[in-house]
Amino acid sequence: MTQNSKRNYYMVFLIFLTFFVISFLTNIIGPLIPDIIRSFNLSLALAGFLPFSFFIAYGVMSIPSGFLVEKYQGKPVMLLAFSIAFAGALLFSLFPNYLVATISLFLIGLGMAMLQVVINPLLRVSGGEEHFAFNSVLAQLIFGGASFLSPRLYSYLVINLPLAEKENLLLNTLRRLVPENLPWVSLYWVFSLATLLMILVIILSRFPRVELKEEEKVGTWAIYKILFKKKIVLLYFLGIMAYVGTEQGVANWISQFLKTYHGLDPQTAGARAVSYFWGLMTVGCGLGLLLLKLIDSRKVLIIFSTAAVILLSLALFGPAEVSRWAFPLMGFAASVMWSIIFSLALNSIESYHGAFSGILCTGIIGGALVPLLIGWLGDQIGLRQGMFVLYLTLGYILSIGLWARPLISNETIQMRKRKRATAAALAG
Prior knowledge:
The chain has 19 helices and no strands. The protein is mainly α. The protein has one domain (3-413): MFS general substrate transporter like domains (Growth Hormone, Chain: A, Up-down Bundle), CATH 1.20.1250. α12 (297-317) runs antiparallel to α13 (320-334). It is globular.
């Protein structure tokens, strides 16, 4: 094995580790919301402002991050991203109050947004273009695995920290650092340590030079002006907003809903439900890959979004045992939505794909707006009624499967057979 190939394999591992850390930090807000509400005596709207603070950072940083990567390459941007995330996590660890929590989550969100822009081109170069599709899917599985594990670490910490008889190095250290009445803050000390370790690893790592492909470049402001004049760009931007809003609207309010309407403990049953939501989303990605080889992606989107609407109804109106499983199963139904909407969008215009990708990624602010809207409505008319917003977002996602007219459709096995038959007939 050559030194070059060793370096490439190492970089692929580092990128996978980065995906894991991003997910570990990003998708923990939902299980924490009941504890945050109780600890800081918050309304649902103020609690909804926490995911808003995190995901609005994606809207602020997605496009500027692309300019930073083009100018400075991946290593300096990754170092800056993890440094900002470390500052955010440490700030809340030291000063756990509501105002600091909003600032902390915004800083962590900035860091995570920057990392999302850096790592895909780096993965393409490090792992080889011929393996990029496989590595991208594997990265998403790792991302989902971290989302499955982080609520379980939260449960472990909040249950065991108050128990004096439970002793190990981690628990003993955290007991000295965390206020006795806020055991869940221990998670942010873990985040601080994780981001600090990532900074040290990146400093010691040798990065390959990345030549961005045309579709990975963010483009000029003039290109953005051209794109914003296209109706199709706005429609797909709203599609990404609707998807991320749905994903985060469910994940962030599962635990509080189960506590409010079914009396289930958010530190155990609520955290498990959120964990299974992300876990089943990961499982659904595998089935989605298979279905996309058999069925047109628009039909797959219609099927899965219809299933999500049915599951949402069962979750909101069913008894406790139905609700605690219908919510996680929504993760399975949502699993294919992001990739299908994104690919339909890029396949619907002929050029400027890099800039269009930046616009679509800015649509992640849906994860800021929808949970906040649900929280505000929850204060006014009840959390169950507030979550009716998700019928609107899912309805819009379903509509994409009806009106989408991509220039290039996903290749199914049947389509490939027809192409071969046509090619054979022409050759004959």
